[in-house]
Amino acid sequence: MKRFIEVEQLLKTQGIRLTAQRALVLRRAVAYLHFTAEELVKDVREIDASVARGTVYRTLALLHRAGVVEKHDFRYGPPNYEVTFAKAHHDHLMCVQCGEIIEFQEPRVEALQQAVVKRFGYQLLSHTHKLYGLCRACQHADPRRAPKHPHLHVEEVVA
Amino acid sequence: MKRFIEVEQLLKTQGIRLTAQRALVLRRAVAYLHFTAEELVKDVREIDASVARGTVYRTLALLHRAGVVEKHDFRYGPPNYEVTFAKAHHDHLMCVQCGEIIEFQEPRVEALQQAVVKRFGYQLLSHTHKLYGLCRACQHADPRRAPKHPHLHVEEVVA
DNA sequence: TTCGCTGCAAAGCTTTTGCAGTGGT
DNA sequence: ACCACTGCAAAAGCTTTGCAGCGAA
């Protein structure tokens, strides 16, 4: 899924109208790519203060069902939303100790996913794939020295 | 990871004590395999009413960091926790329209995951892999007739 | 005219946290 | 003694929802 117009199509096939409010939410979501629900509420309302918080949440739910956004719960801070198109797809590897997040790509997994959904007669809309573990540093670090509320930082890595 | 004693070991390497409360939470979690945080609170407190809600939540966070439990947000109802051992590992395929959930296994994906973490020097503790899409029925159903709050049911399928 | 969509504001639910006391090491 | 851990209860944070009005089909 790549273009805005395709999103519109996809929504239509699900009997969903792309109203002005929803289009605004979608536009701002695409501008961010990564965001929390409340960040998006704030951003959208700075542009059009008449848009209600509830509408943003309702739209996020719609977009998720349509496979346009994913919701990630990394357990540090509020859940994070991500737009699934407009960027090469990637998944996440996270250190449960320090909170480091690495984004990776593994095309062979993507291929296998298609095989799985085909097996069950599904039409794939989106997916999330998260690996949790200990990064090299945290494997050897004294756990008692580990930060309680790790700073979250993202490294863009294509493998 | 397969045995209780290994969990204890794993926690120790992270400088975490397995107190009576934590052991109880873990025992009950294993008894359920699938549960929500509040279900577990209720269950644990029926056995020992002196255990505080906060302790259960704190323990769940610990167990998650240790890779013992996973947290799934299927967007229908509260987040669902799952014990990652004591059962053959499986991942999830969900219909975003009707809420059907299929559990599947794909060993080749598991193998690729190991390759990914190795590439980055990580030690893998756990993972989640969710595929979202439309089931066969919902692909052809009139979307306007789709239930707003689908009933969630799980099919155990090993592929 | 119907039915989906929205704003508003409140309610609801889940989770986190400050603090003081307890217990293991 | 220290410091992790806990109970308690309140607070915080996030999301949902009832309702009345509006607008597109």
Topology (SSEs and partners):
Two copies of one chain form a homodimer.
Chain A: H1 4-13, H2 20-32, E1 34-35, H3 37-47, H4 53-65, E2 69-72, E3 80-83, E4 91-95, E5 101-104, H5 107-119, E6 123-134, H6 136-140, E7 154-156
Parallel strand pairs in A: 4-6, 5-7
Antiparallel strand pairs in A: 1-3, 2-3, 4-5
Helix pairs in contact in A: 2-3, 2-4, 3-4
Chain A binds a DNA duplex (25 and 25 nucleotides) through α4.
Task: Summarize, please.
The structure is a homodimer of 159-residue chains. In chain A, 41% of the residues lie in helices and 21% in strands.
What does this protein structure show overall?
Two copies of one chain form a homodimer. Chain A has 159 residues and is α/β, with parallel strands linked by helices. Chain A is 41% helix and 21% strand. Chain A has two domains: 2-83, Winged helix-like DNA-binding domain superfamily/Winged helix DNA-binding domain (Arc Repressor Mutant, subunit A, Orthogonal Bundle), CATH 1.10.10; 91-154, Ferric-uptake regulator, C-terminal dimerisarion domain (Dna Ligase, domain 1, 2-Layer Sandwich), CATH 3.30.1490.190. Chain A has helices at residues 4-13, 20-32, 37-47, 53-65, 107-119, 136-140, and strands at 34-35, 69-72, 80-83, 91-95, 101-104, 123-134, 154-156. In chain A, the strands form two sheets. In chain A, strands 6-4-5-7 form a four-stranded mixed sheet. In chain A, a hairpin with a 7-residue loop joins strand 2 and strand 3 (80-83). In chain A, helix 2 packs across helix 3 (37-47) and helix 2 (20-32) crosses helix 4 (53-65). The first copy, chain A, is flat, with a radius of gyration of 18 Å. Chain A starts with a helix and ends with a strand. The interface between A and B is large, with 52 and 51 residues. The structure holds a DNA duplex (25 and 25 nucleotides).
